[in-house]
Amino acid sequence: MKLSRRIIIATSGLAISAGCHRKGESWPSSGAQPLSENQNASQALAKDGVKLRTDLDSLERALAGIASKDEITIVYTDSGVGGMSVLARDIGRLYNQKSQSKVRFVFANAIFSQDVAFSSLTDQKLASIFSRFLTSIDKRYQPDLIVVACNTLSVLVPLTDFHKAEGTPILDIAATSVNLMDDTLAQGEKPSVRKTAVYMFATPVTVRNAMYKDELLRRGRRPEAFVDVPCSGLVGRIETDPTSASTRERVQECVDAGLARRPAGADEDVYVSLNCTHFPYAKELWIEAFAKRGVQLKGILNPNESMTAFLHRDTSRHGKFPSTETTAEVVTMMPFRSGVKSSIAGIIEQTWSPKAAVALRNAKVEPDLFPLRDLLPEPQD
Questions:
Q1: Do residues 243 and 130 make contact, with C-beta atoms less than 8 angstroms apart?
Q2: pLDDT tens for residues 149-193?
């Protein structure tokens, strides 16, 4: 029986922890270690005050209803292919759990132009475009769940008409992201414990929105303990090659910009929060960049790791079916830039899911994915 209300989950950062296709992730000798998955979806939702969530009780019930269904369709989206890592991890975990008989995975790229940068448009304009996109994929795929794997889009969700219509509950990455940073900063406020600082790296739109900073301040965290750094031009470099010299150079520039705001003589445990789904593809470069400046990271906060935890929480359903049939497909309105599919697909295939990698390599270009010509700025001569 299909739920009368479907769910949209907005995410960003990078990904759910180990699935069956995942291989061990190595950390360089900088001494940094990844944090454990310390938040599940229910805990993340329990903290109030996150501006993007107001209907937490009904949302939690709806999420539980989705996870208990035998057949589900999940649509993931991002402004690029960062969110493919979330999809890839979920394929592995749901396949292993055998909690559903059939799961259809769809990744819909929300990029609408190769010429118009998100940062050049107002939040309201972007929200109008994103609302059209959400409406289109909701009608097209009739999903049980939409995972918006993007911080940039996540902070725009409450501005969309799609959200305001309240026809589909929306869970976004904001709750998970804020709680990860809040819990980390709170550790450093305990008696006899060393202070902590979080450097959040994100796209200019995410930083400009200031939702994360405002919420952390509202919760009473020290302003000097949180540094939000806009990293323009990094997403494209990571998509083309996360390990390239160009990507390394830009990551170093972003890290230097953040450290330039570090108080003189600061003695604290430093954590990095990667609040763009693309950034963790180059995780080792962030560790390396801090190490070059004499800063050993205490850990990296990766919001997507607990974003869809509710799908895996009900262990009583594990093994309900002899096997889970999974299918995966990728659709985009704009063709991916040269090298994107091969670069990211290679990482996904080796780390999480060959099936997701094949879907990305065989991505379908659909120019009419959603109508928005009347919303775009006029082309310049």
A1: no
A2: 888 888 788 888 888 887 666 777 777 788 889 999 998 888 878
